[in-house]
Amino acid sequence: MDVDGPNPHTLIPIIFSHGLSANRTMHSGICRNLASHGYIVFAPDHHDLTSSYYETESGEGYYYCNKRVAHDLEYRQSQLDIRVNEVRALIDELTEE
């Protein structure tokens, strides 16, 4: 990403993907630190039911609970597939001209 202006420079994008039972705001200190070194940080909340809490577009709220699926590898794979699609969509949006 190029920035035009008196001191043009290149911003290096980083996509920060939160862990299980977390969300983007829980890691804001890490993201802020990366940004302070010149990176532009994108930290999405994932809609794969692994955020500590999130709301759907219809307003339905979800809290993360891993007790029922902690060792269900098929379910974990479906969550990973959702994350991959979300990150790819973000990359596509960022690289769109």
Lateral arrangement of strands in the main beta sheet: 1-2
Helix content: 25-40%
Q: Name the average pLDDT.
A: 82
* Helical/strand content category: alpha+beta
The succession of helices and strands, N to C, reads EEEHEEEH
How much of the sequence is in beta strands?
Answer: 15-25%
Shape: globular
Number of discrete helical segments = 2
Parts with pLDDT < 50 across at least 5 consecutive residues = none
Number of domains: 1
Count of distinct strands: 6
Largest sheet: 2 strands, antiparallel
How far the N terminus sits from the C terminus, by CA atoms, comes to: 11 Å
> Over all CA atoms, what is the radius of gyration?
16 Å
Structure characterization notes:
This protein has two helices and six strands. The model has no long low-confidence stretch (mean pLDDT 82). The chain is of the alpha+beta class. It is globular. The chain has helices spanning 28-36, 73-95; strands at residues 2-3, 9-10, 12-15, 39-42, 53-55, 61-63. It has one domain. The strands form three sheets. Strands 1-2 form a two-stranded antiparallel sheet. The protein has a two-stranded parallel sheet with strand order 3-4. A two-stranded antiparallel sheet has the order 5-6.
